[in-house]
Design brief:
This protein is mainly alpha-helical. The protein folds into 2 domains: 226 residues, Serine Threonine Protein Phosphatase 5, Tetratricopeptide repeat; 199 residues, Serine Threonine Protein Phosphatase 5, Tetratricopeptide repeat, CATH 1.25.40.390. It is 43% helix and 5% strand. It is built from 14 helices and 6 strands. The strands form 3 sheets. It has a two-stranded antiparallel ribbon with strand order 1-3. α2 runs antiparallel to α3, α5 packs across α9 and α9 packs antiparallel against α10. The longest helix is centred in the first third of the chain and has 23 residues. 44% of the residues are buried.
């Protein structure tokens, strides 16, 4: 699942959000030419894993294993958040219940899906018991290495799973902060005020990174790392921000290009009409080679969530503190060191604007599924460029279209979902939390 999401960032989110520019075609995702079937793989993959997780939860209940159930609820919430944010109304209550004879599940509304996700995370938060490990995972589970072992009567892995659960809840609450029915602002305030009840990530060591060794079955998402850079260049937008910030992530993310014997970091213009004749920087192929970490949710994202909350509802000082923590965490996540003068740079120093915060969040969400796309559609930031070669009538999609197969296999419920969302199954249908 994490490997699939990494691939979707590389092939969809990154070019869509004008991070990479292809020279193999001028009609791809970066030009907002989106296939009607662009979301089909996500639909199939997400529901496949949701089926597996439902089985895990059933077994956890049967065996009276609260920690296993809490983990299943956390993962279920993570995947349903991705699914509803990508499509809108989707099956949830009746989903993955073919064993009960439900083959044409009804679609739940986005509001009800979010209510259930939040309730599931609340249940998981209560169920997690740090005094007990995972007795069936003798070699340790994959995310935090949790097994039956305790350290000073505490399971370190369960402590981190609980932090992931609550950090994910904060992501979700911020996503729907503008939806009155979900009371997200009050819920966020309650969580921030009570870190004992709602512990969240406190460092990169807590974050939900799946470590990939490169040895089967933990293989890198791309079979051929060369595909990560083939006909693929970084954009002016992506490069120029990092250059202006004098950012230590730049040499980690990008190669230098050589023009007239001079090496430099230089990006291609997004959505060009005529291919430029100069050489440009490419993504570093090392980013696609194991060992590597796949991001479910980072500590940097969590701090920037807090920064936005404080910017909107709290104090400027708190917002600045969380902004700086988030940016620092993102830089350190990639193994770089934050220069002592980094935040003295006028382009980096906190200025209290949502645009600045979201531009840094764009980089903090590097290689993390669809989150940068979702956040752009929620806030309108960062202000990604619209290339001169982008055809009239082509715009950033708000969502994926439903897979066409639903019109053959679940037509009545498909029609009801389309009606519920405004009457059309198009890319420009706004979801409940979108700007």
């Amino acid at each position: 699942m994490a490997a699939y999401n990494w691939n979707r960032y590389e092939s969809y989110t990154f070019p869509l959000m004008q991070g990479t520019v292809s020279t193999s075609s001028i009609s791809g995702v970066g030009w907002y030419n989106i296939s009607d079937a662009a979301g089909d793989g996500s639909w199939t993959t997400y529901y496949k894993w949701l089926t597996n997780i439902r089985e895990m939860e059933k077994q956890a209940i049967a065996l009276n294993e609260p920690n296993y159930r809490a983990i299943s609820l956390t993962l279920r919430s993570w995947i349903f958040q991705l699914t509803t944010d990508a499509f809108g109304d989707v099956p949830m209550t009746e989903a993955c219940r073919g064993d009960e004879g439900i083959y044409t599940p009804a679609f739940d509304t986005q509001v009800n899906i979010y209510k259930q996700i939040i309730a599931n995370l609340d249940t998981a938060n209560v169920l997690f018991n740090k005094a007990v490990g995972l007795k069936y995972n003798t070699d340790g589970e994959l995310l935090y290495g949790t097994n039956a072992a305790l350290t000073s009567s505490v399971s370190p892995g369960i402590v981190k799973w609980k932090k992931f659960c609550n950090s994910l809840k904060m992501r979700i609450l911020l996503r729907v902060i503008s939806v009155p029915e979900l009371n997200a602002q009050a819920e966020l305030a309650k969580m921030i005020a009570d870190p004992t009840t709602y512990p969240v990530f406190e460092s990169n060591d807590d974050a939900a990174f799946l470590s990939i060794t490169g040895v089967y079955p933990l293989e890198a998402p791309l079979t051929r790392p060369a595909d990560f850079t083939s006909y693929t260049y970084l954009s002016e937008f992506f490069i120029n921000n990092l250059v202006a910030w004098n950012d230590p992530r730049l040499p980690i993310f990008a190669t230098q290009a050589t023009n007239s014997g001079v090496k430099s970091y230089i990006g291609l213009p997004s959505g060009y009409a005529v291919a430029p004749s100069f050489s440009a920087s490419q993504p570093r192929q090392a980013l696609a080679i194991a060992p590597m970490d796949l991001t479910l949710m980072s500590y940097a994202e969590l701090e920037l969530i807090k920064a936005e909350y404080e910017q909107r509802f709290g104090t400027a000082d708190n917002a600045q503190t969380h902004y700086m923590k988030g940016v620092k965490a993102s830089i350190e996540q990639w193994g770089a060191v934050v220069p002592s003068s980094y935040f003295d740079n006028a382009n980096v120093a906190y200025d209290g604007t949502l645009e600045q915060l979201m531009t840094q969040k764009y980089y903090a969400l590097f290689l993390c599924d669809y989150q940068a796309w979702f956040e752009y559609n929620r806030t309108g930031y960062p202000q990604v460029p619209r290339g001169v070669g982008v055809s009239e009538g082509k715009y950033m999609p708000k969502r994926f279209k439903y897979p066409a197969v639903l019109q053959r296999t679940n037509l009545n419920n498909y029609k009801q979902a389309v009606t519920s969302m405004g009457g059309s199954d198009n890319f420009d249908v706004k979801l409940i939390w979108q700007k």
